Amino acid sequence: MDKKQTRMKRALKLRSQIKKLSATRLSIHKTSQHIYAQIISGDGTLTLASASTNQTELKLNLKGTSNITAAIAVGKRIAEKALAAGVTEVAFDRSGFKYHGRVKALADAAREAGLKF
User: Is the pTM of the predicted complex or chain greater than 0.85?
Assistant: First the structure.
């Protein structure tokens, strides 16, 4: 298996567990240049909030979009939007990415800003 297939296998395992709970989830995706986060409803049909380093309001305040400080900014922003939408508890869907670096920074920032998972 190559790197992407291994990641997708991890993602399927995690998403099947979250689907059984039917919990609202915080789904993230990262590329070499950007990091994206979405709050998705329990049934998976509705995106309640989203934030990314591609958005101009975040991009203007960041030195770079592919570092830990950018992930922290996205984590804080997604938590603010989620709380405004009335979501306080989520399941963290890391999309098969290992929990370190930018993924961990985004999760920690979202927790500090008020999200529970």
Answer: yes
